[in-house]
Amino acid sequence: MRETYHEELNSISDGLAEMANLVGSAMGLATAALLDADLQLAESVISTDAKVDDLQRDLENRAITVLARQQPVATDLRLVVTSLRMSADLERSGDLAEHVAKLARMRYPQRAVPRDLRRTILEMGQLAQRLMAQAAEVIITHDVAAALQLEKDDDRMDELHRMTFQHLMDEQWHHGVETAVDVTLVGRYYERFADHAVSVARRVVYLVTGEHADELTRETLA
């Protein structure tokens, strides 16, 4: 019975890592679809979101089953409860990748991102994918130091997000209101996606230590 119990707990962690890798890949593909006006790629990302939703429902069912049958305590209980919250973060991340892909589809055959912003948006997309890959790794390894580092790495996303606004506010902006709205939305999608990756990492910190990331950081600095 105990062996089965631990297999169930491990399957929850594996499911979370699978979700994180899936949504990270989806955001990478959505970025390519956005920058290259690739309709087929955009459609594939949009269809992938249904799989993310299915994974979340399956993970939630497994977590609830563990709660009902095993009545976990201490660290195991934290794992189950925290996993439910992480799955919500990851499901929303999948929605954000889908939003990027839908923007690419809406503007097809035109490109939604003007040439002078392509490099910034590409970096945002690559960074978003990398942060989520780090989150997936942290889910498996329970590496607290790596989880805390992820939050620091997110600073670059915030910087890139500010850069897009600076570009939009520049008096030399000549791409019109519609493109400005598109760029504003897509910048927000990437920024929120990165926030969810950070949230997942912070929840792993709580899972392992029983302390919230902010509390742990303050104690380290003290």
Shape: elongated
Number of distinct beta strands: 0
What is the H/E string?
HHHHHHHH
Distance between the termini: 44 Å
Major β-sheet profile:
none
SS class: mainly alpha
Q: How many DSSP H or I helices?
A: 8
Q: Helical amount among residues, as a percent range? A: over 70%
Extract low-pLDDT stretches. none
Radius of gyration over alpha carbons? Answer: 19 Å
Strand content: under 5%
- Average pLDDT taken over every residue: 92
Features:
222 residues, mainly alpha
Describe this structure in words.
With 222 residues, this protein is mainly alpha-helical. The chain is 87% helix and 0% strand. The chain contains 8 helices and no strands. The longest helix is centred in the N-terminal third of the chain and has 35 residues, at 2-36. The radius of gyration is 19 Å and the shape is elongated. The relative contact order is 0.15. The model has no long low-confidence stretch (mean pLDDT 92).
Write the layout of secondary structure elements.
Elements: H1 2-36, H2 39-70, H3 74-107, H4 118-141, H5 144-153, H6 155-169, H7 176-209, H8 213-221
Helix pairs in contact: 1-2, 1-3, 1-4, 2-3, 3-7, 4-5, 4-6, 4-7, 5-7, 6-7
How would you summarize what this structure contains?
By secondary structure, the chain is mainly α.
